[in-house]
Fold this sequence. Notes:
The chain has 381 residues and is α+β, with helices and mostly antiparallel strands. It is built from 10 helices and 18 strands. It has helices spanning 3-12, 17-32, 39-48, 97-101, 110-114, 226-229, 237-249, 252-255, 257-264, 373-380; strands at residues 50-55, 58-63, 119-131, 143-156, 164-170, 189-197, 200-203, 211-213, 219-220, 269-274, 279-281, 286-298, 304-310, 322-326, 328-331, 337-342, 346-349, 355-357. β15 (328-331) and β16 form a beta hairpin. The longest helix is centred in the first third of the chain and has 16 residues, at 17-32. The radius of gyration is 25 Å and the shape is elongated.
Amino acid sequence: MNKKRFRRMKEQMVPSDAVRAELGEKMEAAQAAPKSNFLVKRVLPIAASLLLVIGGTAGVLVYRQLNRGAAPTAPQSGKIAGLPVKQALLSDMPGDASSMDMRIAIFGVRDFFEQELGGFVIARVTGTKAIAAAQDDFAGAGRQEATLEVIEWLYQTDAQAPAKITLTQNLLGGCTLEQQTNLLRKGGVYLLPLAQYEGQYSVMFDLEVLFEVDEQGKLFSHSSIEAFAAYDGKPYAALQEDVNQLLLNEPLLKSAPRFARVLKEGMPLAVVTVIGEAVEQPETMTYLQEVRVGKILEGELPGTCVLTVYSGEEKLLQTGAQYLMFVNEYEDEAQAVTRSLESNRAAKINADGTITPLTEDWNCFSTLAGKTVDEIAQLIK
Length: 381
């Protein structure tokens, strides 16, 4: 590896003295707590997650959670503190029609995972700068790039857990310098749900909620959404505990978020065998296919039914083949039930019993490829 490139990578991994001090306090708390103290069980896993990398004559402390996609670590001592927080709501900040179109209906922490959370961090903002607007930005809104030093990874979806990250935000509010915006503040501490696309980070739902830690170590959500506002004034550990509990109760949110999201919609999920030839419906670019219903994992279906398949000119289902699929049901004005299939909610069952998603893009079975129907049924339970 090029020496200059290695030096740059090494520099990017070195936390500041402030972050080192916060990590040091956590390690001291773990060592000093008596065995009878319940904090021992809560703090020791964090100390075990610290990776010490020695390079040259200097020790480089790199904090990361080692297990891929691991459940978040236990809440810490609560000594982490940010800036005084102005308790302004994101919903009260001015925005034009284009920014309003970008809002997503969310109702709680679970929605982070259903929308494929890329990571959850406690981080301190070390720098901010305005950057040029992109073509897909809100009209005239502008953007900000922020650099952050990670205090702790509460959750991660892959092996990467950098000590420093850079992310971008689109501006909401702030017509004058004195007005509140959704942009991260230099020196502030935040609990951030992160989206990751092509290696670039952004803050999830920062038009609806922005968890900021004040100078007393307490949270403020900047949100009018009841489930998020419930954390206002609480220690940041309250949110951390809920994230942990959610993953313990619903492991599918971590291993197969798209599948978990569709499962929540309540559609029947079943193994079907195609028994009829396709009947074209040219006016709607669909075709009708009769199937025999086998094992039902969720919901109810009749023994045989006719599916409307939306696939354009391509015939997705093969006569005689077996599939695991979610079946969409709806009633017309005469209460006649129509059942249909969307290609990204189905997988073919192979000769060895494993499944292969029917489509490559955005299929809800993508992260379950290679599993058997019985294994998926067990995951649901």
